[in-house]
Amino acid sequence: MEVNSPATPPLPSVASLSRDLLTTARLIRACSAEVLAEFGLSDSQAGLLWALDPAGKPQTMRSLALKLTCDPSNVTVLSEALRRAGLIQRYPHPDDRRAKVLTLTELGLDVWGRLQRRLDEASPLGQLSADQRRSLNAILAACLTPAESQAPEG
Question: I need a surface site. Which of 49, 52, 98, 116 has the fewest CB within 10 A?
Fold first, then answer.
């Protein structure tokens, strides 16, 4: 049993932390929805756009489907909408002509960066200091790692 000294705040319950986390998540989703509407993107389209990290290498549509935990046909539909908007390009994989690879276009890179900056401004997380963001990142990573290792594959 943990004993609190007069200067130490009481330990929050897991239920209290969960409630606060869910409330924060709802606020983030509401802010994100407003920002995505400004860019004319659906939540799913933005998810695909985010998965195409400019710092990463081009990804196959199948690997993106796994990353987004959706059917490859969903990635096909989403990628076609983003391709028509000029945000991504799709081309055959250099080693496997059956596979298609997606990358951001110049316009896609611009939108990706502007979207990230706009979400940073609008999100309640944008109010956190750099140290608070690092701490939150470490806490979330600690929470997600066991859950990800126990998640069913598929």
Answer: 98
Percent of the chain with pLDDT over 70: 90
Q: Which of 94, 100, 123 is nearest to 52 (CA)?
A: 100
Q: Which amino acid is at 30?
A: A
For the record, the structure tokens of 154 come out as 């598929």
CA angle 127, 132, 134 (to 5 degrees): 120
| Residues linked to residue 101 through DSSP beta bridges, in sequence order | 60, 91
CATH number at residue 79: 1.10.10.10
Please name the amino acid found at residue 137: N
- What pTM was estimated for this model as a whole? 0.76
Cα three-residue angle 74-77-80, rounded to 5 degrees: 145
Q: How far apart are CA 29 and CA 21, in angstroms?
A: 12
Looking at the domain assignment, is residue 63 inside a domain? yes
Angle made by CA atoms 127, 122, 131, in degrees to the nearest 5 = 25
- Bridge partners of 88, per DSSP, are 104
